[in-house]
Amino acid sequence: MAKTWFHGLTIAPDCHVCPLHGQDKVLPCGYMPNRICFVGEGPGATESREGKGFVGMSGQDLWNMTENGPEHYSREDVWVTNAALCLPKPKKLQSGARLDLLEVKRKSVWACRRRLIHELLTVTQGHSGAVIVPIGGMSLESIMGQANMKIMSHRGAVLELDLWEVWDDVERERKAGRR
Ligand code: SF4
Fold first, then answer.
1. Which string of b and e fits 116-128 if b means at least 16 CB within 10 Å?
2. CA distance 116 to 79
């Protein structure tokens, strides 16, 4: 399968409903199409400063495990992205209310969800054999469309998912104005 380098967005995110609206995005990049996707929760300070994903310590650990693991995947073999594209930080809203870090993370991941699902569909071409690996509870919640999932409860488990169905749900919710 011929792969091409891609750096950018496959669809515009719903930044207008996100507490991180206006912040610099760390755009996804990698080779597509791909059948293996890793999904982190969001960029860290190093990634945000450099404008590149997975270049901080956690990212280096991830690449190390990917390349030196039993399967010896190269960077070309996996797509790596984040559930939210902007660095989360506590936020004071126009109303005066203050969102703590966890609330900002949760809201930004949900705001960025349509973009993530569209990106995963584009990268995997909706292939039923694609493998999507959440790295973090909020990534799992975003992919599965369910709140309060505990990633450690699903460690090593294979959960079935039809990305086309997830996309239809996302679009239905959007049209119904629930997002
Ligand atoms: S996290 Fe996503 S939805 Fe929120 S501002 Fe950044 S790109 Fe937009």
1. bbbbbbbbbeeee
2. 12
pTM above 0.85, yes or no: yes
CA distance 169 to 106: 19
Report pLDDT digits (tens) over 120-168. Answer: 999 999 898 999 999 999 999 999 999 888 888 888 888 999 999 999 9
Which of 16, 24, 82, 108 should be mutated for ligand 1, with most atoms under 8 A from CB?
A: 108
> Tokens 């090593």 identify what position?
156
Tell me the H-state helices in the chain.
45-50, 57-68, 101-111, 113-124, 137-144, 163-175
Ligand 1 site-directed mutation target among 15, 87, 138, 174, most atoms within 8 Å of CB: 15
Residue pLDDT, tens place only, 85-133:
999 999 988 888 899 999 999 999 999 999 999 999 999 998 989 999 9
One of 3.40.50.620, 3.30.70.20, 3.40.640.10, 3.40.470.10 is the CATH number of 15-175, namely: 3.40.470.10
Whole-number Å distance, alpha carbon 32 to ligand 1 midpoint, is: 22
Domain coordinates in residue numbering, the chain: 15-175
